[in-house]
Amino acid sequence: MANRVALIDYGAGNLHSVHNALNAVGADVKVTADPEIVRKADRIVLPGVGSFKACAHGLEGVPGMVDALTERAEMGGAPFLGICVGMQLLASRGLEHGATPGLGWIPGEVRLIIPSDPAIKVPHMGWNDVAIMPHARGHPVVEEGEAYFLHSYHFAAEDPHHIAAMTDHGEGLVASVVRGNILGVQFHPEKSQAYGLETLARFLEWNP
Q: What is the side-by-side strand order in the sheet with 43-46?
């Protein structure tokens, strides 16, 4: 089991909590903004807190980082986990504070949550169910459970087969996306207690 994990530092992630959670499940974590470390990593975790636009610009602002992520994960097959806005950055574009290109690894766009019932509050904040899509049952990482969410925008994936799990907040919202070795979760595993730690532990064992 190869567990050299590159935790990407681009000024937009909940690094301390994610680092602690990965350490707790046995990962050898390197917090890094160095593309060369990313190219040598066994696994990659991209966290993200804040707006899509700020996170996208922050990631683009690290010289060589997007190229290294693309080479090692999108093209090279290294297991990749995007957390919260780190998941959203997998999309083609985000619409927060204007349209901003994403990595484009999983086609779709990130849109404002607009509940049909005005009594439903935005942001979607707190504990909620993670319900696995029928085609994703048995996935090695994503399982049914309850996780902690905090977001005002949601990932609208173009291909339903890229949606691994859903949650409900007045409407169905994507809780997880997956395409091959690329995995994203909208919830915060580092804040989701046993369920979150178990998710990270399964990620470390995952060999897509």
A: 28-32, 4-8, 43-46, 80-83, 182-185, 172-179, 163-168, 124-132, 145-151
Q: Count Cβ atoms within 10 A of the Cβ of residue 174 and give its class: 0-12 exposed, 13-18 middle, 19 or more buried.
A: buried
Q: Determine the Cα–Cα distance for residues 5 and 20; give it in Å rounded to an integer.
A: 13
CB 154 within 8 A of CB 110: yes
- pLDDT tens digits, residue range 120-179? 999 999 999 999 999 999 999 999 999 999 999 999 999 999 999 999 998 899 999 999
Domain boundaries, the chain: 4-205
* Residues 68-108: tens digit of each pLDDT: 999 999 999 999 999 999 999 999 999 999 999 999 999 99
Global model pTM greater than 0.85: yes
The identity of residue 19, as a single letter, is H
Distance CA 33, CA 135 (A): 36
CA neighbor of 146 nearest in space, from 114, 101, 189: 189
Q: What residues are annotated to the active site?
A: 84, 188, 190
User: Residue 41, SS3?
Assistant: coil
Domain over 4-205 is classified CATH 3.40.640.10? no
